[in-house]
Records
---
Amino acid sequence: MRELRRIFLKIHTWLGLHVAILLGFVLITGSVLVMADEIEMVFHPSAWVSAPADEAAHASFAEIYDALKTTYPETAIMWVEKRPTAFLADRTFTRTAWGEEITIWTHPETAAVLDVTRTIGFRRILHGLHEDLLIPLAPARLFITALSIVVLTSVITGLVVYRRFWRGFFRLPARGADGRTWLGGLHRLIGLWTMPFLLIVGLSSAVFFARTLGLADMGPKPAIATERAGLLPDSADTAMIAAAEQAAMAALPDVAFEKMTMPYNARGGIVFEGRPLDALLVRDGETVSIDPSDFAVLGITHIEDRGGAARLEPLTKVFHYGTVGGTTTRLIWVVFGLASGGLVLTGALIYAARQRADTGAGRTIWRGLGLFRWAYLLLILGMIAVVVVQYGPPGVKWAGIPPPVEAKDYVRLASKGKLRLGEDLPLRLTVSAPEVVSATITPGPGTPRQLELKPAGKNRAATFGLRGTPRDNSVEVELTLQSGEVKSFTYRLGNAIW
């Protein structure tokens, strides 16, 4: 048994040192992420509205859709979430006509628009750091979820090394002891109290790891919807959403839907997702896809239809995110998550104290990492590069503005950047039809002017600017054809929000 403890101590020490920086980072970011919605909305008091206790009093998806399209008619709705947390309003993730992602918050009962925030903010960035270190690639997610093995191994080896650990729950670090002994006592104390939390996090992360490996069956795929020209039928309106919602409720009458996702392509359906009414823990897992053209049910997936890690995921998420007991357990998760970060830190400091080096603890730990320190350095440089590419000037690209149906055969309009009040938004008009002789544009309330079209590959293009105004930003395009016929189209960008 002594030899086993010696081996386990080596494993525990090696993991604690070489993976300490990364594991501590993931634990701390995950802890903050539990309350990231509330933290992000601290300066948006209008969005702090609790949902009604009675489900019947909650605004329907159709009512939310109507409010959004009334206030911001040009935005494309991606998905709607009811009850993101106990204290916040419903939120809808949308994309503006110029390609910027924004989140619109609506009242849970009246569906009135309460606030608008940027989707790419504190929560999104923190989530990216925690999930894949802002490197949106499958190997990065696989690498992070594989830390579940490190967490579980560290817990098991720690318990084996700590003899009669059950006696140490109330054993405080010895007063007056030297630094190494005091750190050892603190490390053991934190480790015992965070052990249940780490086991839960480790096991739930292992489920995510299995899914990332492909060990998951999401169930039967929905049928292909009736073919249509765009993401939604041309007649899409509030009545269509209401009919699709009614069809979903009829298909799954014992499910409380909390999420509606709009089609990603012209052959997809509107997906409603929710939890069984008799479920005590899970918040999702039951889905139904509805054809927006004829409201036929394209597919239904129950939790039991899933296989592998996907079947465990709805239950796994409530434990991993701490939502199993509502706000109370979320706060507990934050405390224990931050304490787990302290556990990793004290473990690294114990290693430094054992070396009895003349250099400081930081330099001793850095040297002790060996080749791993260069791996960490490369990882940090890679994260910086990804941030610059994604969020810096290189990440600003031309985004197509939704065209009028009749304009598709002649021209395309694209924007680069964000529409802001009083600022010029760069626009590019690309003419694909060879029969077009000239193009005249009228940006917003400005005066008409003819563009100088220059060759751009097989097409011709010209750039110009649009100054943002509070409401109804638009560009009128007038094309003169070789036949003398004049074609006019209006591109609507909607309201400048900021």
---
Amino acid sequence: MRACGVIAGQPISALPSLRMPQNAPTCSRQETTMAKVTGIGGVCFKSTGKGAALGAWYRDHLGLELSDFGGAVLKWPDDKADDGGLTVWCVADADSTWFSPSQASMMVNYRVDDLDELLAQLRAADVAIVKGPESHENGNFAWIMDPEGNKVELWQPMAWAPNNKGD
């Protein structure tokens, strides 16, 4: 039996100079691997009022097709962007202004199929565009606020290329 675990990214079994105490836990396999997150399974957040009303706003203004349970199920095969399909996860510093003018501690980024058309629809419905559109290496972005003051990032993804970025 060998001791199980990882030190400095190396399985204990790969560190020949390490002497394990006699009472160290043992296992029968060569090394231990950590279970890990493989993707975002969903985004759920609390409304400041009626969840159904906020859900209806997202349906009416961003085209989310709501299911009977009140939420939307977005399927990767329905996304036709040429970026290979990906979901970004990140943590902003406490002094970040990225989510401003929202006071919320999080922001949802929605992949969209036609940012220019969606922005035209939003303007026609009197939804203010907070910022954008902007071109970046990985696509085009714009930001709006939902009726409860949450900043929403809209992203039309593209395959990464330095020449995608605008001035």
